[in-house]
Amino acid sequence: MKNFDALGLENIKVFYNLSYEELNEHEKNNKEGESCLNGTFCVDTGIFTGRSPKDKYFVKQDPSQNYISWGKINQHITKELFEKLLKKAKKQLSGKNVYIQDAYCGASLNSRKSVRFVTEFAWQAHFVKNMFIRPTEEELKNFNPDFIVYNACKCINEDFKKDGLNSEVFVVFNIEQNIAIIGGTYYGGEMKKGIFSMMNYWLPLENKLSMHCSANVGKDGDVALFFGLSGTGKTTLSTDPNRQLIGDDEHGWDDEGIFNFEGGCYAKTINLDPNNEPEIYAAIKKNALLENVVLREDKSVDFADSSKTENTRVSYPIEHIQNHKKDLKATHPRNIIFLTADAFGVLPPVSKLNKEQAMYYFLSGYTAKVAGTERGITEPQATFSACFGEPFMPLHPTVYARLLGEKIDTHKVNVYLINTGWSGGKYGVGKRMSIKATRACINAILDGSINQCKFETFDVFDLLIPKSLNGVETTLLNPINTWNNKNEYIDTRNKLAMMFIENFKRYEDVKEGIEYSKFGPKL
Fold first, then answer.
1. How far apart, in whole angstroms, are the C-alpha atoms of residue 277 and residue 239?
2. Active-site residue, from 235, 239, 423, 482
3. Contact (Cβ atoms closer than 8 angstroms) between residue 103 and residue 115
């Protein structure tokens, strides 16, 4: 048995890298949740059914403080406060049954990190086992962690006001000590996105691009990347029966090509429909883990019930997707697709971008929330998240954009913007783009047939859009044609363009921001 004395925990009983069967036994015995009709284990994550971004901190110290982009996203705490919180976390975990899960982040041997997760709940070890790359028995013998996560979710910081923090919850990273601590929140996604944040720190400093995207590959080896915020279709559209899935959420791009950070998928399940998303639906079976779903009396899952949260989720090992790429990596991409769910009904279903426009829309990271998804949102609300993943980017967004631009140039990658949102009016008036129409746009990109199209310029945004496209109703291609009131469309389009322009002003303090701002909308 391994020696875990270095963790600084006292009087613990360690359950190390348990099998799925063993974890399920512990979950049941500990009464951590219940099994649904088909045997998938279901848990509730308490009052936190999503991440707590306002409670995330980095220790401000050399040398990492010179690289981190400090602000509302990347908040800082002192080394002394970190030590205090670490002591509290270790006290919480001591004297307990502790689950230790060792895993890899990164399928590329040249870029992967070894991570040790320490948790008090079997289901959290189960989550980690699903989400990260599972070492072989042989690899576990010599496993030496590069980074340790102490998940002391039951531990809260009562002194948060005195300490100048946001709440009792804390998710803190000490880059120099290679430690993260989680307190006050049970949500499993904190572990997943915490390690993603660290990869977003480590890799760009090695001139490797870290990306919040999904990826798949065709029979001819053509790789496609799909960037998009939550609700844009990133997971759904990259899960394609005709293409092998490399991964659904987090990837790196080094000199060899694309590689998945993870060994599993974390899909939203609200309103999950087996007809629209058969692969994800079929992946929900034994060894998967459901979060915050509602069970009917017969223990079947009511995927339409959002009474606990809109953010119902399932994590599952990528092996549950039949058509996945076993080594979780591939060569350099041929196509990059930016996904946005435009609830204003302004953007075209597909646009072709040049490199500079790609940098602009990458740095903008636009989508729109719709009414009803969050309290207080009664009409569409624009959301701009740099690099389509700003909450997880410790470095300045232009660092990632610069790397992306270099790789687009070097490998001659095509870039497209796809609107999976509304057409014919804003949310509540128009209709959502059908998955069929979106698939037709994506298929035309992937098979190259879009290159045979004649293009026209989309006003104000200055994007190239096809005049006709096989499988897509021609009137859809230029959104002004789908609105009954053309003047209202023009007003809404100009309003959205101004939102882009206003958002991009935050990059005017850096050279790249000034350079790329020329390639956005013009009023």
1. 8
2. 235
3. yes
The question of whether 212 is a catalytic residue gets the answer yes
Supply 215's token pair.
Answer: 């990826």
Q: How far apart are CA 187 and CA 56, in angstroms?
A: 13
Angle at which helices 189-202 and 122-131 cross, to 10°: 40
pLDDT of residue 374: 47
Q: How confident is the model at residue 508 (pLDDT cuts 50, 70, 90)?
A: confident
| Residue 193 bears catalytic tag | yes
Is 249 annotated in the active site?
A: yes
Helix (H), strand (E) counts: the chain: 14, 30
Joined together, the tokens standing for residue 97 give 């049954």
DSSP assignment letter at 243: S
Tell me if the pTM is above 0.85.
Answer: yes
Instruction: Specify whether 518 is catalytic.
Output: no
d(CA 265, CA 253): 19
Is residue 313 annotated as part of the catalytic site, yes or no? Answer: yes
Active site residue 234: yes
Among candidate residues 35, 78, 94, 230, the one labeled active-site is 230
Mean pLDDT of 160-168: 97
What dihedral do alpha carbons 471, 473, 478, 481 form, nearest 10°?
180
